[in-house]
Amino acid sequence: MAMKDANPGAKTTKCAKCSKVLDACTNVTGEDGPSEGDYTLCAYCGSLYTFDSQLDLVPVDLDSIQDTKIRNTLEMARGALRVFQSALQVKGMMN
Ligand SMILES: [Zn+2]
Questions:
Q1: Can you spell out the DSSP letters for 38-84?
Q2: Is 90 helix (H, G, I), strand (E, B) or coil?
Q3: How much distance in Å is there from the Cα of 29 to the middle of ligand 1?
Q4: Which carries the bigger pLDDT value, residue 43 or residue 93?
Q5: In this structure, is residue 5 part of a structural domain?
Q6: How many domains does the structure of the chain reveal?
Q7: Residue 66 forms part of a structural domain
Q8: Which one of 2, 29, 32, 87 has the fewest beta carbons within 10 angstroms of its own beta carbon?
Q9: Distance 22 CA to ligand 1 centre (A)
Q10: pLDDT score for 10
């Protein structure tokens, strides 16, 4: 049985802020891979990016996003990421 690709289209790159390898992403609204204009967060440091037309990551300042619903969703995702990172640090699973 073949496993479904969890992130079709995602490229391996490094976070511009923390230099950790970013090689996967998960779509919060469906099963498709990333598309131009989608946003993503670095799972290690919370840096925000958008995908360009080649699906390369372009750093984005959260305050530059005019759509309040999208900005609020990204703020909540960042908050959830911080809680997850804190839990991993307590367990000694993240440096
Ligand atoms: Zn990072």
A1: -EEE-TTT--EEEE-TTS-EEE--GGG---HHHHHHHHHHHHHHHHH
A2: helix
A3: 22
A4: 43
A5: no
A6: 1
A7: yes
A8: 2
A9: 8
A10: 64
- Determine, yes or no, domain membership for 79: yes
Say yes or no to pLDDT of 79 above 90. Answer: yes
Task: Determine the distance separating the centroid of ligand 1 and the alpha carbon of 26, expressed in angstroms.
Answer: 16
Query: Ligand 1 centroid vs 95 CA: distance in angstroms?
Result: 13
Q: How far is the CA of 20 from the centre of ligand 1 (A)?
A: 6
38 is a domain residue: yes
The Å distance, Cα 15 to ligand 1 centre, comes to 5
Tens digits of residue pLDDT in 50-68: 999 998 999 999 999 999 9
Q: Does the structure show a pLDDT above 50 at 2?
A: no
Number of Cβ within a 10 Å radius of residue 28: 10
Domain with 81, as residue range(s), is 13-90
Distance from residue 1's CA to the centre of ligand 1 (Å): 34
